Amino acid sequence: MWELAEKKTTPIYQQIIEQVITYIQDGTLKPGDKLPAERKLAAFYQVNRSTVVHALDELVSLGWVLRRQGSGTIVNEGNWGRSTTPRVDWRSLFTQESHPNEPFLEKIQASLNDPSAMDLYSGELPLGLIPDFRFPSYTWEELLLEEKKQSPLGYRPLQQVICQRIKAEQKIDISSNQVLITSGAQQAMFLLLQVMLQSGDSVAIEDPSFLYSLPIFASAGVKLYGVEMDREGMRVDKLEQLILTKKIKLIILNPTFQNPTGSTMSKRRRNELIKLSQKYQLPIVEDEVFSELNFSAIPPSLKELAPYQVIHLGSLSKIFGSSIKIGWVVADQDLIQRLSEAKQMMDFSISIFPQVIAHTALTDPHFEKNQAALVAALKQRAQAFCEESQAIAADWNVSKIEGGIYVYLTWRHRHLTRKDWEIFLREKIVIAPAFLFSNDTMAMRVNYTRMTAEMRQQFFLKLQTISNELRRN
After folding, report:
1. CATH number of this structure's domain 141-364, picked from the four choices 1.10.10.10, 3.40.190.10, 3.40.640.10, 3.10.450.50
2. Belongs to which family (predicted)?
3. What is the CA 84 to chain-centroid distance, rounded?
4. Contact 277, 244 (CB under 8 A)
């Protein structure tokens, strides 16, 4: 078993790496199996012990094996970092069909170019609500000095601030080598797909979910399977059925102020989800980009409940807009290293400038006060929206708004078609119909934060007119 092919030009340590990975992939070595001791492997391969140590170190960094003091080297039982050296499948690039844009999205984009249209589609706060902060002036030389504080994982001062905030908010002690700075949460998601999954793998997500609208899954050849939700969040019984029938490799969800429904998963359901993921040894990716926009206490994050089972994604774009496109991944150190290597290979480097801005914003002495003022303003808009929505209550069921930026409105009557939703665009109200996020055509996502009092009044007047037309149709 532990023999190498003769007359191979590849370095011996690489041949050892390839052989161990092959044994794991074909089932010769199973999760939890123990490898022979270093001295025995060196004798089997007839090489120096240092060559074996080099190969095992590489396998550890790639996530294929683990070293435990007193137990030796064992095959990794989790999915973290399970991937061979990245390869480009050139054949698939030539044969893969392009993924056409959703026709309704093209109409939405055209409508957004009309300055007279009411934009309730975009996933950002209006400029008037974005917290302000004083940005110190930097000379070019000073920025170059800040550049020296950059590591492959990101701008170190920003990493440290994120660690401090996570410790304060989620009661988790993490170090900087467990945080990777990315250009927004979507880039973080893309890197996770590249490192943790292969083409043809299956992922479980919420239904409905904004993830359906992202092209990164189709580009990676990853299959998405939606899991039905109820008032407490993703249904764990439905998820287990998918795990057993579709060979799910990863669970990705947005448990707090979910996009598009605005709902929050209960603590009880979070614990059930974690228990199920541990049962099947499936990692969870938790997208928590809205959690700081909460009007009252929210359940503990999944990361807080299961620090080693959950990969946490965060972002500043929901607070400061897309102008500060900074996100981060919090995960096991080995996985963060793999993500960092993939990020460098894809040349996804992030300029020092937005990272310095993000650090300045988070360390501004008025940040907490400004954020509290933002949340208060959002709460006021949410309450006004819910009060004024009574005018359309006979036609639309309006979800509770407990935080975040979205409200979900569901039509109470007959089945709606895509053609029906075009009435909104004709009336210059740009919303996100549910069919962008699932197979449902009966609901819409509305960004309530973008409405002033005048816009809100205009929205509900137009919505009554549209509702009358939908009923007539």
Report:
1. 3.40.640.10
2. In the C-terminal section; belongs to the class-I pyridoxal-phosphate-dependent aminotransferase family.
3. 23
4. no
**Model pTM score:** 0.77
Domain 103-128+368-472, CATH among 3.40.50.300, 3.90.1150.10, 1.10.10.60, 3.40.50.2300: 3.90.1150.10
Fold that domain 12-75 belongs to in CATH: Arc Repressor Mutant, subunit A (1.10.10)
φ, ψ of residue 356 in degrees (nearest 5): -65, -40
Q: pLDDT digit string (tens) for 240-274?
A: 999 999 989 999 999 999 999 999 999 999 999 99
C-alpha to C-alpha distance for 282 and 294, rounded to whole angstroms: 29
Q: Which residues of 96-122 are buried (b: 16+ CB within 10 A; e: fewer)?
A: eeeeeeeebeeebeebeeeeebbbbbb
In the block, tokens 């053609």 appear at 419
Contacting residues for 342 by C-beta, under 8 A, at least 6 apart: 86, 191, 194, 195
